[in-house]
Specification:
The chain contains eight helices and six strands, in the order ααβαααβββαβαβα. The chain has 229 residues and is of the alpha+beta class. It has one domain: NADH Oxidase (3-Layer(aba) Sandwich), CATH 3.40.109.10. The strands form two sheets. The chain has a four-stranded antiparallel β-sheet. Helix 2 packs across helix 6. The protein starts with 21 loop residues before the first helix and ends with a helix.
């Protein structure tokens, strides 16, 4: 996609302009809020299969996110293979056991108590898909020389938000999981050192018996997260 040659700037007419009246824009904003207000983080997944093309389309949506210098410094590894999911679960639980055995510190563990989490992560095998998000710290040209990527954490964070919204829009649930450290994911998925794993998304349909912690329904009011100047 990138060339060592100088690429001149070329201005193209905006190809996709969405024209809405103020009233139409308000309805669209309200509709999207209502959709996203129904998004819940769950840990109880059904083993109901999810077609690969839905995952592919959601990742393609993530790939439309803005990024520093348009370098698109992300890679998504979608895992459905049961053996690989079992390996990822075993490695993640080993790190989580250290975390909950005191590695996190008392304050962090107290913060997690209302969520009811622990070192056991069965959802990593039950959910039909795991999507591992990698941040590409640098890229390489065809001849192997490196080029720098810019605003990598910000770009990958935006793309991941696109991905979660796309999955929810498709009627799927997702759980963000960040065992620390996550270097084992490079080995498990044969990804290069230039890529840093930043998150595992467990993806699938919620189980009929799925629950959410009561505290998760406590969202900050708009006045606490917005000031209009």
């Amino acid at each position: 996609m990138f060339s060592k040659d100088n690429l001149p700037h070329e201005a193209l007419p905006l190809p996709d302009q969405i024209e809405r009246t103020d009233a139409e824009a308000r309805r669209a904003a309200d509709d999207f809020f209502d959709l996203m207000a129904k998004r819940h983080t769950i840990r109880d997944f059904s083993d109901r299969p999810v077609p690969r093309e839905i995952i592919e389309r959601a990742v393609a949506t993530a790939g439309r996110a803005p990024s520093g210098a348009n370098h698109q410094p992300w890679f998504f590894a979608a895992v459905a293979d049961p053996a690989l999911k079992a390996l990822i679960r075993a490695e993640a639980e080993a790190e989580e056991a250290k975390f909950y055995d005191g590695g996190a510190g008392d304050e962090w563990l107290r913060a997690l108590e209302p969520l009811g989490t622990d070192a056991s992560k069965p959802h990593l095998e039950i959910a039909p898909w795991l999507i591992v998000v990698f941040a590409q710290r640098w890229g390489t040209y065809d001849d192997g020389t490196r080029f720098k990527n810019y605003y990598v954490p910000e770009s990958v964070g935006i793309a991941t938000g696109f991905l979660i919204a796309a999955l929810h829009n498709a009627g799927l649930s997702a759980l963000t999981h960040t065992p620390n450290p996550m270097k084992f994911l490079n080995s498990a998925l044969n990804r290069p050192d230039s890529e840093k794993p930043v998150m595992i998304l467990a993806v699938g349909h919620a189980a009929q018996t799925a629950t959410v912690p009561a505290v998760a329904k406590m969202k900050k009011p708009l006045d606490d997260i917005l000031k209009v100047y």
